[in-house]
DNA sequence: ACGCTCACG
DNA sequence: GACGTACGTGAGCGTA
C-alpha cells in the first residue's frame, strides 16, 4: 500500500473524503447512542468510524488510492459571508449533542492513520477544490468521496466523485444529467438557480431546468447576462436584467476556490497503514464493541477489553454514581480553576449554574459559579460571599478564600465563548444574562428546562426541583434551607460558603444529569427539531430584548396615577352614597353582600366558597337593567386596575440605571408555545379601552428614535384556514377581504356591502369561538343571546364550513390516540386530560383543539424573532417586545421605513421553508413616539 | 396560599 | 338528559 515518496505525480491517485458530510450522515442515520460509562453522546462518532472502516476495508483493488485525506469544515463563518452576509444564514443550528462529537471525529480520523485537514475560515469544499486542482495539475487522478452537488463543478479531467452510500461513481455524464450542463458550466447554472439550503439567492423563479436551458443557449453566464435583452420570454428577461448583480454574487458564492492556501504538501497525504494499537485503543475508549472486535480480527491483533458498565439486564437507566459521589469541590484558587477548565475542554461540555444576589438578572451581582462535567462530581467557585449582615454596624466584608469575580470571569470567558464547548444550563437565559453583563456572550448553549418543555409541555412544569424529582428521583436541597424565608430571608451572598457549596454544586450536577437524561429522549420522541429551531435559539434573542428594555416615562405614570386616585375617591363617595353605607369597594365579598343580600338584586351564589360572583359580566347585566351601583363599581374597578397594576406597579419596575423597564420572558411558561412576560408583564398593557390605552403613552422611544410596532393580522384564523383546509376561508384570505364579514355573509346569506355591524360582530365571535373549541353555552354568554340561538349559529356555521367540524373531530381523536397534539412545526403539546370523563373532559377537548392553532402562531413568531437579529443587523434598530402576534422595535427616526420593510419581510415568510401556508401572512405596521401611537 | 377579578392576545 | 364550559396567560387584592 505504500508508494515511494518521490512526490505526487502521474500514476498517483488521491482520495478526498468529505468529512463533514460523513458526520452529518452518521448523525442522522443512527439513533442517539451514548457512551455507556459516562453517557456522552457518541452516535455520530460511531457512524463516522463505521463509514471510515468500511472505506478503508474497500480499498484493495488496482484503483486503490496512493494518497488520502479527510477534510472537515472548520467554522461556519467564511469569506463567503463577506461577499454575502446571508450565506447559509437559514441553516438550522447545529444539534447540541453533535457539536461535542466534532473533536472526536478528528481524533478518529487520526486513529485510522489518515490525514485530517481543516483550515480556519474555509469550507471543506474549498480545500477539496484546491487539492483537486493541485493533484490534477501534477498529473494525478482524484476521487472525491461525497455526493455533495456543490462539489460537482470539480468533476472532469481526472477528477471524479464517488457517492459513499450508493457506491456510485459520479463522472461528467452524471453531472450533466443532474445539471443539464457539463461540469465546467455547473457554477453558472447554480448561480442562476440559487440554493435554498445554503441561502444562495440566484435569480427568483429560475430553477435548474431553466438555468440549464439559458446557459446552453447563450454559452456561459456572462454572455447570458450581457445579452439578456435577447431572451424571448418577457418575464424571464426582466428577471435576469433586474437581478444581474445578485446572480453574479451568487456565482461567487458557489464557485469553489482552487487557490485556497494549503499549509501541507500532497506528499504528506500518502496512504499509511492503520496502526492496530492506536486504532484499537481509540475504538475501545469509545466503547464500540462490535467495531473493535471486527477491526481487531481484520488487523490480526488482539482486541483490547472494552471497559464500561456491562449492558444493563433491563432497559433501565445506565448505572450512574450517586449524587455527589465523587465530591463537591470548593474552588478557591487559579490552579484549581485551571484544572477544571482543562477538564472541560477535554469533555467538550459543562453544566453551569450561577448564584447571584437576587432574582432580577439586570441588577443581581454574581456570588458564585458552579460547574459539573460528569455525574457524581461538581465544583463551586465562590466569588461574592460576604460576612456580617450588611447594616451600618455589622459592616459587610468579603469572606476570605475566594477568587475575585473578575479573575474567574476572565478565566471562564474562553470556555463560555468556545464554539466547541457546550454550556448546559437549567433556565440558561438567566445565567446568559448575568454573563452578558460582564461582556461574555455564552455559546453554544443547551437548556434542560427547554428540553423538558419540548417533551413535556402540558404534562408538568419544568423547574429544576420538579425535573430532578421526576427524572432523577432526587430531591434538591431547598433554597430556603440556606436563605430562610419571609422577613428573615437573607441574600445568597450572606450564605456561608460551606453551606453554599453543596447546594450550588448540586444544581450543576442535577443539570448535567438532566441533560444526559433528556438528550436521547428528544430524538426518540421526535422533538429535536422543535428544541433546536424553536426553543434553544430563543435564549440569546430574548436575553438581548430583555436587556434592551423599553423606556418608560415615570413622570407621565405619576401624573396618571394622581388623576386615577382622584377619580377613585370620587367614585367611592358615589358608591357609598348609593349603597347607603361605607364598605371596602375592593372587596368582592362585601360588595356581593351589599348587592344581593342588602339590596336584593338577582344573582346567585357561585363557587365552592359560596361567595357571590361580582365579576364584570354579572355587574354589566345588572347595570343594563338600570341599576346605578353596579355601573359605578365597574367604573371604579377599571380605574383601580389601571392605577394599581399599571401606573403604580410599573413605576417600581423602572430600572434606576437604565431608566427602562426590563421584562422577563418565560420560554417554557405557557403550554402552547407562547411566551409569557413577567416582572412586569408587558403583554397585558391595556389597549381595548380608551382610558386604558393611555397607559401606552408612557412607553416611549428614546430621543431621536421611534417605536415601531408590527403585528400579524388574524394569524390564528389564517392558520385555522390552512390546517383545517377550508376553501372558503383560504380564498377569502387570498383575496384580502374582511374575514368576519365574509363569514357573516356565508352564514346569514346577506351581502358584505352595507352589512349590519351587529351581524358582523356575531360572525366575529363565532370565528374566535371556533379557535377556542366552540360551545353553544360559551357563545351565548359572549354574545348575550339565548343558548338555543347560539347553538343554531354554530350549526349553521358547521354546515357552511364542514371542514372545521372534521378538523376538530380529527384533532380530538388524534389527541386521544397519541396523548398529545402537534403544531404544523412539530411542537408537541401533551393532553393528559383528554381521556377523562365528566366536566373536565370538555375543557381538555377544547384545549386540544386550540393548542395546534395557538401553538402554530407562537411557532411562527418565534421563527421570525430568531431570524430578526440577522435581518436588521445593519439597521439602527432593536427588537424590544413581543406580544404574541406583535413585535415592538425601537428605531432611529430616519430608519423606520427600512426597518418596517426588513422586519415585515421576515415576519411574512417566517413559516417557510418548513411550512408553505395556503394563505398569505399579512403584517400591519405602525410608527410613533410612544406605544399608543405605534400600535 | 388561594380565589377572584381583570388586563392582554 | 344534565352537566357546566369559550383558548392561553400574569398581577394585585382581599380573605382565610
Automatic annotation (TrEMBL):
UniProt entry tagged with the keyword Transferase: yes
Superkingdom assignment: Bacteria
Domain 3'-5' exonuclease: 328-523
InterPro entries according to UniProt: 3'-5'_exonuclease_dom, 5-3_exonucl_a-hlix_arch_N, 5-3_exonuclease, 5-3_exonuclease_C_sf, DNA-dir_DNA_pol_A_CS, DNA-dir_DNA_pol_A_palm_dom, DNA/RNA_pol_sf, DNA_polI_H3TH
Domain Exonuclease, residue spans: 348-524
Assigned keywords, A-Z: DNA damage, DNA repair, DNA replication, DNA-binding, DNA-directed DNA polymerase, Exonuclease, Hydrolase, Nuclease, Nucleotidyltransferase, Transferase
GO biological process assignments: DNA-templated DNA replication; double-strand break repair
Family named by the database record: Belongs to the DNA polymerase type-A family.
Descriptive protein name: DNA polymerase I
Catalytic activity: DNA(n) + a 2'-deoxyribonucleoside 5'-triphosphate = DNA(n+1) + diphosphate
UniProt xrefs under Pfam families: 5_3_exonuc, 5_3_exonuc_N, DNA_pol_A, DNA_pol_A_exo1
Native source species: Paracoccus saliphilus
Subunit-structure text: Single-chain monomer with multiple functions.
Protein EC: 2.7.7.7
DNA-directed DNA polymerase family A palm domain sequence ranges: 692-895
Gene3D superfamilies (alphabetical): 3.30.70.370, 5' to 3' exonuclease, C-terminal subdomain, 5'-nuclease, Ribonuclease H-like superfamily/Ribonuclease H, Taq DNA Polymerase, Chain T, domain 4
UniProt GO molecular function: 3'-5' exonuclease activity; 5'-3' exonuclease activity; DNA binding; DNA-directed DNA polymerase activity
Reported function: In addition to polymerase activity, this DNA polymerase exhibits 3'-5' and 5'-3' exonuclease activity.
Domain 5'-3' exonuclease: 9-272
